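Example record

One chain of 154 residues, shown exactly as stored in the release files.
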Amino acid sequence: MKLSIFSVGKAHDSYIKEGVDQFTKRITHYYPIDWQLIIPSKLTDAHQIKKAEAISILKALNATDVLILLDEKGKMLSSPGLANLIQQKANQSAQRIVFLIGGAYGVDDEIKKRANFTWSISDLVFPHMLVRLILAEQIYRACSILAYEKYHHE
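Predicted C-alpha cells for this chain:
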C-alpha cells in the first residue's frame, strides 16, 4: 500500500518544510509516501475556485484510491483511531490512501461525495501549512502505533 498527501496550495514554507520532510522520511520506513501540491485556482469566486480545484484533484486520483478528506465537518479520530483506519484500509487491500487537504475555501461537493472518509483533525482552525505538518506527524504516529513502537504513549 502507498500513501499520498494532496494539498491545495503553494510549496511548503521553510519553517514547515523541515518538519514535513522529517516525518515524511520516517513514514517511508512503513509505507511509500509522496506529496502532491495542487495549484490553487486564480479565479475570484469561491464556488468557481472549488470547482476548478476539484477538476485538478479528480485528475490526480485513481479510481481505486481511498480518499481521506480533511474537513472541519468530518469525524474526529484519536491517534489510535487513525492507526485503525489505516490498518483497516490495508486489510481491504487498498493500493493507495490519499489524504487531501483542501484549498482556502474548502472543497467542492463532488470531492466530498468522492471521499471514502472525512476526517476532522480538530475543532480549531489551522493554517493549511500547519495542517500539513500535523498530518505528517499523525500519519507517522499511526504507523508507529501499528508497529507497536514507543513513539506514541498512552
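Notes: Strands lie at 2-8, 33-38, 66-76, 96-101, 117-120.
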